[in-house]
Specification:
It contains one helix and four strands. With 127 residues, it is of the alpha+beta class. The chain has a four-stranded antiparallel sheet with strand order 1-2-3-4, with helices on one face. Strand 2 and strand 3 form a beta hairpin. The longest helix has 55 residues.
């Protein structure tokens, strides 16, 4: 009778295969979580950028005694170490002093041109 207490080569290969599959699944789950976290962070920062742009529109109104100009304006903004494209569209309303302001914020490095991180709509009046 010959009794070995060592693992055979097949047992070691099976163990390595199981370990490799488990590590692959763990890596996929981790990368998915990191992508979700990055998307949440981008959405939050984009909200700050949009709020800043809306505040800028309100401040521009206070500088002069005329309603803000209608039209579309785009500019690039740096925040949180990233570059954001801010599109501000100002439209007239039925009241001569009231303007509808829509701000769309997009991460410049995003894959899709229409992939806006956030959108904000507000109104800017005389006072």
């Amino acid at each position: 009778m010959h009794s070995d207490k060592a693992f055979t080569l097949i047992e070691i290969l099976v163990a390595l295969l199981v370990l490799g599959i488990a590590m692959s699944m763990f890596g996929n789950a981790t990368s998915g979580s990191l992508r979700s976290l990055e998307r949440i962070e981008a959405g939050r920062v984009a909200g700050w950028v949009a709020s800043n742009e809306m505040a800028t529109a309100r401040l521009e109104r206070r500088v002069k005694d005329t309603p803000i100009e209608t039209g579309r304006r785009q500019r690039l903004v740096q925040m949180a170490g990233r570059e954001w494209e801010v599109t501000r569209t100002v439209r007239p309303t039925s009241h001569p002093w009231l303007r509808r302001v829509e701000v769309q914020v997009r991460l410049v490095e995003s894959e899709s041109f229409d992939d806006y991180a956030t959108s904000l709509i507000g109104y800017v009046g005389r006072y």
